[in-house]
Amino acid sequence: MWRIESESPEYRSWSSMKTRCLNTRMPDYHNYGGRGIEICWRWRYSYKLFLEDMGRRPTPGHSLDRIDANGHYEPDNCRWATWIEQQRNRRDCVFLVIDGQRATISEWAERRGLSYKAVYQRLQSGWSPQRALSVPVQKRSGKRLNASQREEIKAAWTPGVRLRDHGARFGVSAQTVSDILGGRGRGRNTSASRWRCLAAEEDVELGVQGAA
């Protein structure tokens, strides 16, 4: 019976927890025991008590997670969580508080029907959280952007931002941003071909200087 239990996913979670916090030779020790994360005495020496408190994990997609990423391994601070829930609970996540509600950028984006990338890029560009989450992303859906939309995209351009990232803020492609900055759409501009070439280099940070 014990041999079977020692091969269970719950036992492996308990064992891994102890390794992360107590074994100084483990590569991840500095993220756990090395920064003061401890295991309560009830769990440290008893897998039986750990299982009694935590129960079986709900699905194979759940694993042990600390609710407060800076807290200890103890009954009041642990849960079985999915990978997505754990990513949202990382200590390097950025949280936004709007109307008294606190959530990560990805959670807010999901609630508002926006992409994480669009919201993140808006915040990086200096938009307020309220505006970043309230302005709809412009969907092309095969339709051409009107003059007002094109002007907004052009006016919001910041030197040093990649075309791909700038386009993500408005739900358009790097090629569309390239065409707008190059002057295409209302008469061709000789610099458009230069912008199209730059758009293909998605990993190159671009500036406007010298583009005219």
Main sheet properties: 2 strands, antiparallel
Radius of gyration, in angstroms, nearest whole number: 25 Å
Low-confidence stretches: 185-212
State the total count of DSSP E strands: 4
**What average pLDDT do the residues reach?**
76
Approximate helicity band: 40-55%
Cα shape:
elongated
Distance between the termini: 76 Å
Adjacency order of strands in the biggest sheet: 1-2
* Percentage of residues in DSSP E strands: 5-15%
Structural class, judged by helices and strands? Answer: mainly alpha
Assembly form of the protein: single chain
Figure out the total of helices.
Answer: 12
Description:
The protein has 212 residues and is mainly α. It folds into 3 domains: 2-88, no CATH class; 95-134, no CATH class; 147-200, no CATH class. Helices cover 45% and strands 8% of the residues. It is built from 12 helices and 4 strands; from the N terminus they run H-H-H-H-E-E-H-E-E-H-H-H-H-H-H-H. Helix 10 (163-170) packs across helix 11. The relative contact order is 0.07.
Overview in brief:
Helix content is about 45%, strand content about 10%.
Provide the fold topology.
Layout: H1 2-6, H2 9-22, H3 41-44, H4 47-54, E1 62-66, E2 78-82, H5 83-88, E3 95-98, E4 101-104, H6 105-112, H7 116-124, H8 129-134, H9 147-155, H10 163-170, H11 174-182, H12 192-200
Antiparallel strand pairs: 1-2, 3-4
Helix pairs in contact: 7-10, 10-11, 11-12
